[in-house]
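Entry:
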Amino acid sequence: MFSHTPKNKKFDYTPRYYDERKERLEAMKKKHENPQRAEIEERIRGQFQRHASQRKNIFMNTGVRFMIILVLLLVITYVILQYFGIPLW
């Protein structure tokens, strides 16, 4: 009753075949069927890419700001400890 071990879980994986040529042909067909739709899709894709790059820049700026604050706090702590004559080690 207490020594029940769970059975192995199985999964079904079927690999998919990717045909780059077929993908390009379908994209060209879609583009020529409705040219406005292709323009809209390109504009949306560009907006996503710009948004991702902006988020990356914000993240990098936050990291740099954090490092500057950390260094300043360490320097201030060192100066205070030296002023009061407290040994560091």
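The first helix runs from residue 20 to 33.
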